[in-house]
Amino acid sequence: MTASPTSLMPPLPEVLGTDPSRCVLDSFRIAIAKRVSDALPPLALEQAYNGVDYGKKGVDFTVALPRFRLPGKVDELAKKVVGQFHADDWVESITHDKAFLHFQVNTKNMIYEVLNQIHDQTHKMPSGKPEYGSNESGRGKRVVIEYSSPNIAKAFHVGHLRSTIIGAFLSNLYKACGWEVTSMNYLGDWGTQFGMIATGFEKYGSREELEKDAIKHLLDVYVKVNRDAEADPDVKVEAAKWFKRMEDGDETALHDWRMWRQLSIRKYEEEYDRLNVKFDVYTGESQVGKESMDIALRKLEEMGLIDEVNGAKLVDLEKYKMGKAVVRKKDGTSIYLTRDIGAAIERYEKYKFDKMIYVVSSQQDLHLSQFFKVLELMGYPWASSLQHVNYGLVQGMSTRKGTVVFLDQIIKEAGQVMHDQMQKNEEKYKAVEDPETTSMEIGITGVKIQDMAAKRINNYTFNWERMLSFEGDTGPYLQYAHVRLASIGRKNPHLLPLPPPSEIDVTTLAESPQAREIAFLLGSYPDIVKTALRTHEPSGVVTYLFRLSHAISSAWETVVVKGEEDITKARARMWMYDTAREVLAAAMRLLSIRPLERM
């Protein structure tokens, strides 16, 4: 039998795959499923439970009877369930509508159970951290997520931004679902461009500039040396020689390269920190052993999977509609595919993962399907646990003056626009401790929300006005919603600290349709997390955040705290808003956004 640990509700049978201790709406669904299965034998409780869906507007839960494929007319079946129905502490009412049964749960109990569960999971967990919305579905499993992966000596381009934002979300999401996560940045840190940089560095390099901003300085050197190469073909010959020395393990050539790599990573870490993104491992093309690549090629040849065409080696994947995959160029150098295969084999050896996810743009769809297919043909059983999470392109991303951009310019500019906005309200501006950091956070939130608002696969056009507006469904609006909730406590110090939940009376909340809607939405957050894990779509979480913010916003006028003289009412409302703030913050953190207290 199951009921929440601090709950006074009547016990219910257990249903496999549910966890009322993490999502109290599971209990209400079990209570509904029990009504349906009791009235319609031989329908099993589990089967009935799987048929309980969220209802459309104004309805809590709906059961579509035809899905059970039971003998008899749907109308007759519905009448049986309605005929046996009586209200109790879990379910308030039932309505029959054609092939559907609509259920409303007990308002007062739902509000109390939801708020109480969020309170417990926010303040009383052994970890000391807020855990509402998380679950244990991935316990004991390990996932490696490769994302961001910029090229050293090329600026952190906005194209890498999508991979970074989506990857950080997936990393947080898998952790929230109990998985052990290794987030990995696979840098473009090898290749002939380093020969070019080495050649150019002798002429244009400066240690001082390198220490200041390695990424920018190496890029400047790279641009200048490429200009030289256009006029003088010998430059490329020199560069190729230099890279050959690197490939052959020449220590002097590698010494400089190592320093450039190290300083670039340090600079990247600053950029990532601003974005609230953290990697467990910085690896890169250079870290893939030649041995692994050679073994992979040998294995492909032994298995008769290689065709030789004009000296190049290919794997023929025509019968899978994937064309021909080149695994070695005719000059004998390895290419991306061979390196990716070598890297995957090494990673499996090291991490023994249950799943490995590559967050890479949809332009690489063919490359990734070829790569996964080749590993499968090589007979690696874990090849089936590789997954490509793809995304569309960002169009028109440039600074407002129209130049194409690097990420730090976008962030600085977004922060500046927000800073100007904030200064318009002098009184509030004075109350903000660190306006520069705050305005940058709002700007970053704007960038992230615009990126995650629609399905990943959609291309989107970067829109400055839209992104930084406080009106409509934007990042700044979300931060504002959180700040507004955070200010309630500051404005009503006489209500704090709140008494324990068991001493708060939610009767008056149950009388407000707005409060009911907020509580029900808060209760559905654990399901939002589970759905996101299934779809790998951050947009579902963004949509949820806006639904919740709108529900809260429409309650401000009627469910008032400040000025409410009835202390019982004021406390219950304060508790609800405080709990809503916790959930809003949890969903924002899942999206790698830092919720602000003031702005």
UniProtKB/TrEMBL annotation:
Q: Could you give one GO CC term from the UniProt record?
A: mitochondrion
Q: What SMART domains has UniProt attached to this entry?
A: DALR_1
Q: Which UniProt keywords apply?
A: Aminoacyl-tRNA synthetase, ATP-binding, Ligase, Nucleotide-binding, Protein biosynthesis
An MF annotation (GO) of this entry: ATP binding
Supply the Gene3D superfamilies for this chain: Arginyl tRNA synthetase N-terminal domain, HUPs, Isoleucyl-tRNA Synthetase, Domain 1
A Pfam family of the record is DALR_1
Q: What class of enzyme is it?
A: ligase
What EC number(s) would the UniProt record show? 6.1.1.19
- Reaction equations catalysed: tRNA(Arg) + L-arginine + ATP = L-arginyl-tRNA(Arg) + AMP + diphosphate
What GO biological process terms are annotated to this protein in UniProt? Answer: arginyl-tRNA aminoacylation; mitochondrial translation
Query: What residue stretches are annotated with the DALR anticodon binding domain?
Result: 478-599
The organism sits in which domain of life? Eukaryota
Q: Which PANTHER family match?
A: ARGININE--TRNA LIGASE, MITOCHONDRIAL-RELATED, ARGINYL-TRNA SYNTHETASE
Annotated family: Belongs to the class-I aminoacyl-tRNA synthetase family.
- Give the protein name, as stated in the record: arginine--tRNA ligase
Q: Which organism is it from?
A: Amanita thiersii Skay4041
